Every structure is written in C-alpha cells, then in structure tokens.
Amino acid sequence: MARVPLPLRGLRPRLIAAFVLVATVSALSTGALAFRGARTGVLQQSQDAVIRQFRTSVDAVAVYTPPAPDASDLQRAVDQVLHANPEQGWRVLATYGDHRAWAPSADFDKLSPELLRSVRTKRAAVFQRVNAQGHSFLVVGMPVTYTAGADRTPRLSGMAMFLVVPQNTEEAYVDAMVGNIERATLVALCLAVALALLAASGVLRPVRALRGATRRMAEGHLDVRLAVSGSDELADLSQSFNDTAAALERSVAELRRLEAQARRFVADVSHELRTPLAAMSAVTDVLDENALHLDQETGHALRLVREGTSRLSGLVEDLMEISRFDAGAIEPHLDELDLAESLANTLAARGWQDRVETRVPGPGVLRTRVDPRRFDVVMANLVGNALRHGAAPVRLTMEREERADGAWAVVKVSDNGPGITEEAMPHIFERFYKAGASRTRSESSGLGLAITAENVRLHQGRIRAANLPGGGAEFTVELPLRRDSPDTDDEAAGGSR
C-alpha cells in the first residue's frame, strides 16, 4: 500500500490541503458553470441580434427585387444589405439558380453543404457557428419568400441570401470572462488558505492542549486537566480525557497507598523479627558449642534449627534492605577503593579463592569511589549465585573500558551451567523471582539479584544477564570510573585461584 508523503502526515497540512482542494473544486466548478452559461448567453444574444438585423435587411431589399432576378439584381440586393450595415464586418452572398453575387469578397468557404441544402428546403433562417483558424464565425442562410393566394402562405422564391460575420466582439468578451474567472479562482484559493489556517488553528488548539496534557501525565502529573468548552466532538474528547485522568489519579493514589502499607508492613515485620531471631541465633550458638555432648537425634535437630534460623535471618536482612531501598533511605558511604583488591577480599572472606577462576588487572589500575560494603554484596551475590546454580568452572573477569561517555570498570561473572531459560530472562532481577521449580525450595530468598541490581544502580552503574553461546550464564556489571583514575591498561593475569 502506498504510504502518505511525509509532508501530509500532520493534521495541519491535511486540513489546509482539504480546504484548498474543496475551494479549488468549488471555484473551478462554479467558474466553469458560470463561464458556460455566460458564453452561451452572449453568443445567443449576439446570434439573435445578427439574425434579426439580417432578416430586416433582407426583407427590405426583397420588395425591390424582381421575381426572376439576374446577376445585377442580386448584386444590387447585396450592396443594399451591406449599405444598411456598413460597420458590421459582414460578407454577404446572394444566389438565384445559377446566378451569384457577393460583397465584399468571394470568401464563402465556411458555407457547409448541409446549410446550403437546408436553405433550399426551409422557409426560415438557418445558422451555424464555425471555428476557423482559432476564430469563431456566425454563418446565416436566409431564403427570400413571398406570399400568394388567399391564405397568404409564404412560398420560396428561389432566391437565398447568406451572411458570414466574425464574432470578434463576442470572443473578446468571452476572453475577458475567462480572465475574471481566473482572478476570482485565485482570490477564492487565497481565502480558502486563510480560512484553512483559521480552521486548523481552531481545531488543533484543543489537540495541542490534549497532547501537552498527555505528556505531562506521562511525566507523572496525574492532576492535569483540560478546559472543556463547547459541545462538539473535541469537547467530548477533552471531557473523556479529564474523566480518564481523574480515574487514573484515584487508582494510582490507591495503589500507592497500598504499596506504602505493604512496605511498612514488610519493614515492621522484618524489624520485629530481628529481636527474636537474634535470641534464637544466640541460643543455637550456645547449643552448637555443646553439640559433641548431645545424642545423634538431638544434634540433627539442632543443625536443622541452626540452618533454619540462619536462612530466616538472611531473609529478614534482605527484606529490611529492600525496605530501605523502597523508602529512599539508602545513602552510600563512598570510599576510594582498588576494585581488584576489594574483589580478592570478597572471595577470601568466603573461602571461594579455589573455586573461582579470576582475571583482574594489576594494583591501582581500577580505582574509583564506591561503597565498600555494597560492592562486596554485589560481588558476593553474583559469585555465590554462580556457585550455587551454575557449574564449574566459575569465571570472574574485571577490566577497564574507555568509551565515549568516559571510563568504565566492567566485571563479568560466568559459569558453565545450564544457563537462564528464555522465560526467566526478562524477570531475572525481579524480587522473589526464582528461575525454576527446583529453586523454589532452595536457600535463596529470591531477593539477592534484586538487591544486587539496586546496589549497582545506586552507583550509577548498569547490570545485565545473558547466556553464553557455549552454555552457561554470564552477569555483567559496569561501574563508572573517576575522571582522574590512572590511565594505565596493564593487566596482571590472576590465573586460577
């Protein structure tokens, strides 16, 4: 299907084009009809006047013409007709049998055979309009009749007179009409454009207001409303927008209220659980010191209680962290760190040095201001997630990249496991989301990656997940580096640790 040209896609150009098109068609149609009627009237009036004048002249000379005129009689009749109409530009021809007479010239090639035959058989004047060499001529044939008998019936005398007259005056008048119609059409088009601009302005004003209100609503200003005036379709549209905006504002306000209640509930529950969990953890620690003196069944129960308490404590801490993010109460405590050294400390603190293959730059290459605790949480969550749900080897790389928007530290954590399913990929950083049925009963709370993403965004960084072509998942974290960070790109391969 042919596409609309780009300049006509806007509402204003289309309105103007429609107005101009309607005005053009109307002006041309009106002009054509007016021209046709005026031209017909002018030619008809001129034709009737010429025929009437020619008939009067012919009747005047017919009285003095003998019943069987010869060539001299015919010439005298022609001269009398021309003498009675000296400034008409007429050419007159008289015929009787084989006799011919004409004046002022013998140029009568515009007499058609049909007109000649009609004059011989009819008692009334016969006429034709002929166009020759771009000019119009009126050709009239008139038989000379006489009356005889008691009934005074006109009879043909055998004599006929013909007239050829140019219609120069009529052509000039028609040309003047064409010029006037063209000027009137041009004026109509100018008025149409002006009216189109006014109409487009009136139509587009509420449309522009609606567009501005929609943009403000998209920016979060749900209290925006439109002024409704009139009772047309645009007024109905504005009122519908206002009703929709009011309903949306009420719905969003209710959702925000419910969300705030849910956040307060999570924060309150998490806070209330911390105290009994701390006591439970202290008791399990004391009991764990005496585990060697307990029987096997009691020791197994103690281990279950300790593991459950540990998982519940981790979940409470994660919930409180999420609550702080939701409340906007997170203020990072930035410190200048060597990211490679901080990463090594993260692995060493959890005993993961021998389970992760690392490739990081040398000392001082990647230094920037980060929150040490939160950077540790990010790296621990990603590496721990790869160790729990992936397969060996787990690889960790860190490098510096120079881009148009500055220098970046790029950290990648990958494994050799089954990877992330296509269904889970869009939700991998959502809260409480677990990427498979086998993980629903795991130690994971479903908040680790969500907290990781929040911490990365807190440092104006970016995080993404992908599957490797050869199998396994890869998480990439990008953190902006300071402008005055060292420019050296030397890397020290860490090898397998």
UniProtKB/TrEMBL annotation:
Molecular function in Gene Ontology: phosphorelay sensor kinase activity
Catalytic reaction annotation: ATP + protein L-histidine = ADP + protein N-phospho-L-histidine
SUPFAM superfamilies assigned to the protein according to its UniProt record, in alphabetical order: ATPase domain of HSP90 chaperone/DNA topoisomerase II/histidine kinase, HAMP domain-like, Homodimeric domain of signal transducing histidine kinase
Record-linked PROSITE patterns: HAMP (PS50885), HIS_KIN (PS50109)
Enzymatic class: transferase
Residue ranges constituting the HAMP domain according to the UniProt record: 201-253
Pfam family of the protein (one): HATPase_c
Residues annotated as domain Histidine kinase: 268-483
Main localization of the protein described in the UniProt heading: membrane
Protein name: histidine kinase
Organism this protein belongs to: Streptomyces misionensis
